[in-house]
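Field reference: sequence -> structure
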Amino acid sequence: MPKSALLPLVGLGGAAGLGGGAYLLHKNSQPSPIEKPSIPEKKTIQDKLQKEGFQILNSSEGQHWGTLKDAYNSAKSEESKVFAVINSNIDENKLKDLCKSALEKDEEDASYSKAKRWCVVPVTVTVSDYLSKLGRRALSTASSGETDKDQWEKLAAKYESAPDKIASVTSLGADNNKWSTLRQKCGELGAKKNYEDNFDTNLASSKVWCSV
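Structure field:
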């Protein structure tokens, strides 16, 4: 083939190369898509309570709702305890509505302590399955026998000099009875329920002095 015939082909090849390079340059110069920042999942009061080991009360558990409704009506005029101060008593359905609204709020909302009081399956301070979720075991508070005596004695030996004592228990008395006195006080403390006053304080004391 004459050289003159190759020139157009060379030109075409060069043009094709330039065109391909331009295409790649154009493609590579496209801005990367902007990633939208991830939005943290909202944590609710219900989430927080469940994480702490509480069981949310469902609408069909009539016995518990009845107990809580009666306790709620007894405290209805105390702003720090109820969702809203009222003059008349509420029924179970109203309490369920109040709980539904509170449980859906952000976990840091001020309704948290009230939801813990009125919207979960009632528990005592030392109920065994609740403490186990916190990694603790409640010591035996049976008034007869010496179950867990070694653990009680170790705790009693530290009690007198400790700053964080059980409320209203400043001393455990005579040395030889300190462990049994502590056991008795823990039995009284452990019977306190979450819808009664000072549950958090009682729970904290129970974790320190009544469980291992």
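Note: Confidence is low (pLDDT under 50) at residues 5-18, 21-25.
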